[in-house]
Amino acid sequence: MFGRIYSAFYLPQSLSRLTQLVEEEVQAWREYPLDEVYYAVFLYSTFLYIRRGRTAKEPVYIALGIKPDGCRKILGFCVFGGR
What we know:
By secondary structure, the protein is of the alpha+beta class. It is about 30% helix and about 40% strand.
């Protein structure tokens, strides 16, 4: 499927390594310390198609912080099962 989407072909070992690298980056992002001050924090959700044995729309909850300089930062997200 990856090859059909990106017109590129990778060995299964390469895709496994790529997945591992992405998981490591996401974990480092989740452990990064938050700034002390946010003027506002918004919580919202959206539904995305997620495959866990089958494909289904599931809610993804996202926390967005607005820093004093106006920059927006995603503070975190959670995926909850649709049932």
